[in-house]
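Key result, reporting period 2: structure in, sequence out.
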């Protein structure tokens, strides 16, 4: 039994100390942060409010039901279940999104994808711009784009009906249901162009690399959103071919990729002769993660 489960004090400061120590003992580097997020979630307060109180020496009492729930969540986190699945929330692009084990947890690195699409879209002022988000999951990319560009009409595609349900609820939460539509699809098969942009965070981890992935990710996030089991150049090749078909001349393609396959991905675009302004942009860690290109032709 975890040390957190043995905690008897009802004070927030003591519960946090015991829980963080228990998580640290199991090799979880973000132990204090995780404990704070989970306790704040159980108390129904913000993490900032909780840590300010604790730092000021005001030890908030924790009701027995909340303490019991907290101890249950800490025990699950000790088994490496991601915090976002425990709280069912994850912030992305300053949006509070619902996440469940049916969808990939949105990550800060993927915000670079949104940034690149917004930079490459035609300026506002004309007709609505059509954007396709392939493998939408929680709808994070689609909703962020629609949030920043009121003239955008985003079609969000996914092979998982359960994922589309999560994305749909997130769209409704932010009043986007009129501008973000969700469709069950395998990549771009049902899409007819022309569209202004195709964006995707597709599965790009090879099954042979599974042992290199953190257990928090490998053992809990949906395999279909993580692993590219297709032969050869994999899912990316089909995605690029589909994008070439539906993009208008000058339309942009932006895809999150694995750093280790950035050269291969870039060659896939350049060898086809269908793309221009090709490149791979780094994320904040300097990893080559954001593949981008424009469909050759004049706008």
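The corresponding designed sequence is given below.
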């Amino acid at each position: 039994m975890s040390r957190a489960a043995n905690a008897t004090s009802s004070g927030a400061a003591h519960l946090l100390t015991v829980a963080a120590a228990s998580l640290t003992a199991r090799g979880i580097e973000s132990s204090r942060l995780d404990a704070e997020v989970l306790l704040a979630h159980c108390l129904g307060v913000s993490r900032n409010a909780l840590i300010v109180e604790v730092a000021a020496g005001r030890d908030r009492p924790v009701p027995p039901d909340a303490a019991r729930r907290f101890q249950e969540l800490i025990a699950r986190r000790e088994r490496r279940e991601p915090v976002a699945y425990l709280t069912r929330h994850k912030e992305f692009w300053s949006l509070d999104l619902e996440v469940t084990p049916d969808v990939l947890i949105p990550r800060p690195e993927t915000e670079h994808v949104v940034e690149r699409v917004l930079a490459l879209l035609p300026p506002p002022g004309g007709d609505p711009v059509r954007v396709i988000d392939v493998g939408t999951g929680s709808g994070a990319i689609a909703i962020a784009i629609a949030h920043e560009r009121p003239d955008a009409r985003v079609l969000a595609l996914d092979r998982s009906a359960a994922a589309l349900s999560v994305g749909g609820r997130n769209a409704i939460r932010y009043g986007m249901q009129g501008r973000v539509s969700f469709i069950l699809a395998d990549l771009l098969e049902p899409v007819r162009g022309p569209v202004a942009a195709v964006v995707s965070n597709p599965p790009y981890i090879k099954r042979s690399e599974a042992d290199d992935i953190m257990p928090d990710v490998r053992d809990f996030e949906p395999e279909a959103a993580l692993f590219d089991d297709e032969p050869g150049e994999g899912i990316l090749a089909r995605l690029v071919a589909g994008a070439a078909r539906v993009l208008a001349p000058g339309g942009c393609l932006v895809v999150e990729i694995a750093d280790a396959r950035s050269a291969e991905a870039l060659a896939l675009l350049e060898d086809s002769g269908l793309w221009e302004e090709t490149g791979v942009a780094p994320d904040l860690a300097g990893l080559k993660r954001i593949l981008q290109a424009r469909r050759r032709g004049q706008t």
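The chain has two domains: 4-79, 89-295. Residues 1-8 have pLDDT under 50 and may be disordered. This case is discussed further under Risks and Mitigation.
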